[in-house]
Amino acid sequence: MSDRTLRIIAPLAFMVILIILWEILVDAFRIPTFLVPSPSKVLRCLIDSGPILFTHTFVTIYEILLGFALAAAFGILLAIGVVYVRFVELCIMPLVVVFQVLPKVAVAPLLVMWMGYGESPKILVAFLICFFSVVINTVAGLLSTENEFVDLMHSIKASRFQIFWKVQLPNALPYIFSGFEISITAAVIGAIIGEFVGSESGLGYMIMVSQQNMNTPLMFVSITILGVIGLILFEVVVFLEKIFIPWYEKTQIKR
Q1: Are 190 and 128 a contacting pair, CB within 8 Å?
Q2: How far apart are CA 80 and CA 90, in angstroms?
Q3: What is the pLDDT of residue 11?
Q4: For the chain, how long is the longest CA-to-CA vector?
Q5: Domain range spanning residue 11?
Q6: Average pLDDT, integer, range 45-56
Q7: Interval 169-215: pLDDT, tens
Q8: pTM for this structure?
Q9: Are residues 45 and 128 in the same domain?
Q10: Are residues 111 and 10 in the same domain?
Q11: Which of 112, 169, 181, 251 is the most exposed place for a label (fewest CB within 10 A)?
Q12: Is there a single domain that holds both residue 240 and residue 177?
């Protein structure tokens, strides 16, 4: 069996085992549904609430993707500014660090007050949560370029832009995608935080409603969908990494 096939089958098999144990334990100990529903009841709730969940899932995915896309674009631009512009490094970057340490749960209510209960504050919270990792990883990648390559480009009289485009940016791509892998999962958290604070749609809204109604199976379904979304988006970023930088291979630990 190939390593790639094993990486797919192993977690799926382990998940199936956990679900079977979950079903057995809930039935054996007669745990009330409002505390921990059995997988069969969660599945039944998923089937019954499918159309409604689809609509709310689409809203959350939209918030996640747009927040991540904005963080990726502005994060890379700011990182380039930090590396090449002294003013950005000295004046703007410290403000970004200060804002990063602020708990986004505390900032989200302000955003809802300013921007309302629509999708904008959720997108902004997702942006704020995953923005910093893009900046830090991109800066690290741009600064990790070996001086020998830069000196070689200077020797052939390459311009500053050519050095950036031909040497520094390709060298930074593995770091950038590592930042993306962190950010895409953080964007899921950001969107849900925004929906918890104030929303009228989305999976976070569904979790809040199910909590108020003591509908634990619906809460489990919403959380499960969020986990699946995060996993799929993470794998999409990994797939894009292989497309854009096929020459880069991550070091595997020998066992």
Answers
A1: yes
A2: 14
A3: 83
A4: 76
A5: 1-31
A6: 89
A7: 999 999 999 999 999 999 999 999 999 888 888 999 999 999 888 89
A8: 0.90
A9: yes
A10: no
A11: 251
A12: yes
